[in-house]
Amino acid sequence: MTDVFQALAAPQSRRIIEELAGEPKTKAALIKSTKLSEASVVKHMNVLVAAELVKVEKKGRTETYSLNRVGFTEAAKWFGKVGTANLGARADDLAETLGELGTSLKNWLEKKLNVELDVDPEKAGKELGKKLSEAKQGAKKAAKQVKVKIKTKKS
Length: 155
Fold this sequence. Notes:
By secondary structure, the protein is mainly alpha-helical. The protein has helices spanning about 5, 10-20, 25-35, 40-50, 70-115, 120-145, and strands spanning about 25, 55-60, 60-65. The chain has two domains: about 5-65, Orthogonal Bundle (Arc Repressor Mutant, subunit A), CATH 1.10.10.10; about 70-145, no CATH class.
């Protein structure tokens, strides 16, 4: 199997994928809609088929191309793994930013209302950070439990 990300590196391949996202198409229809040469479409289709991003259905002499879930599932797994790692850092940054905003808001309100508010913005920020961390752990757990079943059709 060709690497999915290597197959998607070429802008022409991505354009073909975008065309096929709408509906399956023949080579002639892809040439017309992408405005690529026949040689270019054939070249990119070979790479996309090898990466299992596109599948070919033959009816007589006509080949119809459509998206193949197999390659996209592999890419989605990778994005899921990397995305959950990034989620924690983003949650920490968000909690810190919200804590700072809370302090600024408390100071502004006290000044405008000429009162002293009994709110500890740092404590509120920590509470929020804890909730975000719990949400992150829940998302990781849920991501591990998700299983994608792929049915492959043998020709």
